Amino acid sequence: MIYFIDGKFTDKDQLNISVDDRGYYFGDGVYEVVKVYNGELYTAEEHFERLLQSAAKIKMTIPYSQQQLIEIAKELVERNKIDTGHIYLQVTRGASLRIHQFPDPSVLPVVTAYAIPNERPLKNMAEGVSAKFVEDVRWLRCDIKSLNLLANVLAKQEAFEDGCAEAIFVRDGFVMEGSSSNMFGVKDGVVYTHPATNLILNGITRQVILKLCSEIGIQVKETAFTPEDALKMDEFFMTSTTAEVTPVILIDGNQIGSGQPGEITKKLQEAFSRQMPVFEKQ
Ligand code: PMP
């Protein structure tokens, strides 16, 4: 597998990463996951724009432009011959002796990326998954796609141990988002989701779905709702780069609506599939 690190494309076993990298010590960095469909990057501009914004929010300057990041991602797709899969790209504040404050003199951020094959989750999309409410113990800057994912890791593990595919974070009595996804409920034909504040990550898939809702004429309310409201929804679904639009049919053991993927959810899945790159490989 060919990785990208510090400006070079290199074999995984040739990677040279410092044990002093602030990613290891502090999770001091940001990342993105970009989906590849049929060898084409999907919404890469939006993802790398968000990466640059995440970096700026933690006072870090990425040594590449949005366009250069897209070129790196494209080259990884080509070199690794990825058809359907994803790119993972992370940037840490660099390597230096372990002190909390930023290194002075400053060091160059470390950019690492790879491309990996990964099929679309068609079974989950067709059948739906179960989820579990978990208390949101994260910090107050969930809008930053930071490498600090300990609370997300623990929440996802708790969900998995309960046989669930995803944890739904609840903060102060309101549904926020999933441990690695955004959450949506549908009631009487209206789609509800938490507004894009500092308390959630404004998912790129979330933004695509909101745009598709407006194109199809589905009403959306970006309003926080409670776990009790969630259980009374007619339909529920989650979105992310890798999960796409996955129905949630069971929460904490309670069936949502009919217990089957809902009509609006299916409509959005179809609309989503229609606008992804489906270029035939020559
Ligand atoms: N929220 C969180 C906490 C996430 O980790 C993710 C996945 N990166 C999402 C939402 C969904 O974001 P996206 O649609 O950009 O993958």
Topology (SSEs and partners):
Layout: E1 2-5, E2 8-11, H1 22-26, E3 29-37, E4 40-41, H2 44-57, H3 66-79, E5 85-92, E6 110-117, H4 122-127, E7 129-135, H5 150-161, E8 166-171, E9 174-178, E10 182-187, E11 190-193, H6 204-216, E12 220-222, H7 227-231, E13 235-240, E14 244-251, E15 254-255, H8 263-274
Parallel strand pairs: 7-8, 7-14, 11-12
Antiparallel strand pairs: 1-2, 1-6, 3-4, 3-5, 5-6, 8-9, 10-11, 10-13, 13-14, 14-15
The structure holds 4'-deoxy-4'-aminopyridoxal-5'-phosphate (PMP).
How do you describe this structure in short?
By secondary structure, the protein is of the alpha+beta class. The protein contains eight helices and 15 strands.
CATH architecture field of the largest domain:
Alpha-Beta Barrel
The biggest sheet, with number of strands, parallel, antiparallel or mixed sense and barrel status, is:
9 strands, mixed
Decide which structural class fits the backbone.
alpha+beta
What are the distinct ligands in this entry?
Answer: 4'-deoxy-4'-aminopyridoxal-5'-phosphate
Oligomerization category of the chains in this entry: single chain
Return the CATH topology of the largest domain.
D-amino Acid Aminotransferase, Chain A, domain 2
Average residue-wise pLDDT: 97
The number of domains is: 2
- Percentage of helical residues? 25-40%
Describe this structure in words.
By secondary structure, the protein is α+β, with helices and mostly antiparallel strands. Helix 2 (44-57) packs across helix 3 (66-79). The protein has helices at 22-26, 44-57, 66-79, 122-127, 150-161, 204-216, 227-231, 263-274; strands at 2-5, 8-11, 29-37, 40-41, 85-92, 110-117, 129-135, 166-171, 174-178, 182-187, 190-193, 220-222, 235-240, 244-251, 254-255. The mean pLDDT is 97. The chain has two domains: 2-117, Aminotransferase class 4, branched-chain amino acid transferase, N-terminal domain (D-amino Acid Aminotransferase, Chain A, domain 1, 2-Layer Sandwich); 122-274, D-amino Acid Aminotransferase, Chain A, domain 2 (Alpha-Beta Barrel). The strands form two sheets. Strands 7, 8, 9, 10, 11, 12, 13, 14 and 15 form a nine-stranded mixed beta sheet that branches. Strands 2-1-6-5-3-4 form a six-stranded antiparallel beta sheet. Strand 14 (244-251) and strand 15 (254-255) form a beta hairpin. Helices cover 29% and strands 29% of the residues. The chain contains eight helices and 15 strands. The chain binds 4'-deoxy-4'-aminopyridoxal-5'-phosphate (PMP). 4'-deoxy-4'-aminopyridoxal-5'-phosphate (PMP) binds at residues 33, 152, 177, 180-182, 201, 203-206, 239-241.
